[in-house]
Amino acid sequence: MFAIVRTGGKQYRVAAGDKIVVEKLAGEAGDKVTLGDVLLAGENGDLKDVSKLTVAAEIVAQAKGEKVIVFKKRRRHNYRRKNGHRQNHTILKIVSIGA
Predict the structure, then answer these.
(1) Which residue in 16, 42, 53, 95 has its CB near the most CB atoms, within 10 A?
(2) Residue among 94, 88, 69, 97 at smallest CA distance from 22
(3) How many helices (H) and strands (E) does the chain have?
(4) Residue 39: phi, psi to the nearest 5?
(5) Which residues are CB-neighbours of 35 under 8 A, at least 6 positions away?
């Protein structure tokens, strides 16, 4: 069975046993979280009713993404700004999809 869930402004296709990287969620490694915003669910081409469907997940780790360099420059004005950013992520393992 698969489901499409929305968290952190993005949508993810998940199935039981999958590991996904999402925007930071509150909690420590080993905590259980419930993803309640299920958009679609199905199995073997059949779609299921998602009104009471939730996705249970477990937090594997809290991590940081790759560094992104933000460099601004205006030529002939001696204007240069360099800034870096590392986004916080949460790694989730999908435990089950069900009511």
Answers:
(1) 53
(2) 88
(3) 0, 10
(4) -95, -35
(5) 5, 7, 54, 55, 56, 57
The tens place of each residue's pLDDT in the chain, 99 residues long, gives 899 999 999 999 999 999 999 999 999 999 999 998 999 999 888 898 888 899 999 999 999 999 999 999 999 999 999 999 999 999 999 999 986
Q: In the structure encoding, which two tokens stand for residue 62, read together?
A: 């809290």
CA distance 94 to 12: 11
CA separation for the pair 51, 65 (Å, rounded): 33
Amino acid found at 51:
S
What does the block give as tokens for 1? 């069975």
Which residue carries 């940081």 as its tokens? 64
- Residues 8 and 29: their CA atoms lie apart, in Å, by 19
In terms of DSSP H, where are the helices of 1-99? Answer: none
